[in-house]
Amino acid sequence: MILVAPSILSADFGNLNSEIASVELFSDLIHVDIMDGHFVPNITFGPGQVGKMRANKPFDVHLMIENPEKYLKDFADGVMQAVGSELYARSFLVVHQEATKDLVGTVRMVKALGMKVGVALNPATSLDTLEDVLDDVDMVLCMTVNPGFGGQKFIESVMPKISQLRALRPDLHIEVDGGINLETARVARQAGANIFVAGNYVFGAPDRKTALESLRG
């Protein structure tokens, strides 16, 4: 199943709920990038801002923050406020393998909160680092840029990692994020990815519906 998740990192922050409303009808998830200025150099939203968002689709909350286990409950509460209980249970909290000292424990904490759990890998991070959690996660996010800013160039050398992951877990959601457009989505889809995050390609398009639908292939 191919899913599309527009990244609000490229939306107009001054009109965020209107921006979400403009794409949610054509989307499967709303991708929310959380950056702390430490794990990555940029800074975006805190839990309070997430709680002020409103959407009629599940959230895909990508925690690009150090020690994410300290903040899981706060962000989960924000998601609950934003989407309500039914969509909350279908929403993802995604933590970076590189950002936590106890990945197994962090995955368990997300599951205990009643949300779907994802783990993100930077382009240079090996799949071997997921050995202890691969059977327990709902999604793996394979970054196709180095995280921190939108508008970066797609790193095609990540594709073998995606193919290997698809062979290991045929039922797994595999997400790609970074430099996604019509052409790079096709490449990632052939490698085995099935969730496509796009920011500039969607929010910079004259027709956002067409842009999102094109990612489905």
Count of the separate structural domains: 1
CATH C-level class is Alpha Beta
Provide the gyration radius in Å.
16 Å
Number of helices, counting only DSSP H or I runs of 4 residues or more: 9
N/C terminus separation: 11 Å
Low-confidence runs = none
Give the spatial strand order of the biggest sheet.
1-8-7-6-5-4-3-2
What is the total tally of β strands?
8
The structure class reads: alpha/beta
β content, as a range? 15-25%
Q: What is the third-level CATH name, the topology?
A: TIM Barrel
Biggest β-sheet description: 8 strands, parallel
CATH architecture type: Alpha-Beta Barrel
What is the average of the pLDDT values? 96
* The CATH fourth-level homologous superfamily: Aldolase class I
Describe this structure in words.
By secondary structure, this protein is α/β, with parallel strands linked by helices. The radius of gyration is 16 Å and the shape is globular. It has a single domain, classed as TIM Barrel (Alpha-Beta Barrel). The model has no long low-confidence stretch (mean pLDDT 96). The chain has an 8-stranded parallel sheet. The N and C termini lie close together (11 Å). The chain contains 9 helices and 8 strands. Strand 7, helix 7 and strand 8 form a beta-alpha-beta unit.
